[in-house]
Amino acid sequence: MDLTLWLGQSLAALAHRPDGVLAVAETVPALVDPVAAGPLQVGDWEFVAANADYLLGGTVLTVLLTVTSLVLGFLLGFPAGAIEVYGDGVLRTLVRKFGVVLRGTPIIVIMIFTYYVLPIEVPINAIVAVLTAVDAALGPTPFTVPTSVPDTFMAATLALGFRSAAYQSQIFRGALESIDEGQLAAARSIGMSRLEGIRHVVVPQALRRSVPGFQNEFTIVLKDTSIAFAIGLAELLKRSHDLFLQQTTAVLEIVLFMSLIYFVLTFAVNRTLDYGSSYFAIPGDSS
């Protein structure tokens, strides 16, 4: 029995019956005893099972949003981390300032900005220009810019990607700084340039050491994809909310099913990254 309904019945009993207290007591078993209240809500689980494909469609969108955001975050975050360690002057200052702003701004504010303020055509045109330049320099490539992507997905990717880049830059900055400076000096002593030493000696070790931090970043980005609900993207949380509205008695069952999906995704990827971290670990490295 619904708690609100029970309270209403109880107040009515107290107001209109001389033995109202006894009447209230009679309604208590129906509230606390599922058997007294009637059969369990098996129909709610059946409703969830019948709409599992709808939720799994949202799961696919959530995974795609997570992957694209992490990739964008890596492509921007790794160079930003390297600039913070090895750069100087105005560029280094700008990178640090942008990172502070992005890390200090709530993700929902960034997402609303990218959707309602930032013209989506600007990043799309920028990506097209980059790929065109790559084609001109290296020849035809299989990469194209999808033009049928919904604006909500593009805006969410940009918001999550930029914010992830701000955090990934700190992950990679710490990993780069953890490599002993003597290794770069040794690379220079055998004839490598500074850039070659960073590329062939420092970066491979830093990437391996950054895996634990990247695991945490993956978990954060995966859960933050639910913020795309605010701009109407039909990811897992948005589709779960759609089902809430169809059958309000199944809220708990839908939330449990949705939570299970998030847990499975997080657990599977973290275990995979654990294996990769162990497999590619630097021999003898205790860092």
UniProtKB/TrEMBL annotation:
InterPro entries: AA_ABC_transptr_permease_3TM (IPR010065), ArtM/GltK/GlnP/TcyL/YhdX-like (IPR043429), MetI-like (IPR000515), MetI-like_sf (IPR035906)
GO biological process: amino acid transport
GO MF annotation list: transmembrane transporter activity
Residue ranges constituting the ABC transmembrane type-1 domain according to the UniProt record: 59-273
Transmembrane segments: 54-78, 98-118, 249-269
Compartments in which it is found: Cell membrane
Tagged with keyword Iron-sulfur: no
Gene3D superfamilies listed in its UniProt record: MetI-like
Pfam annotation, one family: BPD_transp_1
Top-level taxon: Archaea
UniProt keyword Transport, yes or no: yes
Keywords: Amino-acid transport, Cell membrane, Membrane, Transmembrane, Transmembrane helix, Transport
GO cellular component, one term: ATP-binding cassette (ABC) transporter complex
Membrane topology qualifier: Multi-pass membrane protein
Family statement: Belongs to the binding-protein-dependent transport system permease family.
Annotated PANTHER family: L-CYSTINE TRANSPORT SYSTEM PERMEASE PROTEIN TCYL (PTHR30614:SF0), MEMBRANE COMPONENT OF AMINO ACID ABC TRANSPORTER (PTHR30614)
Name by which UniProt lists this protein: ABC transporter integral membrane protein
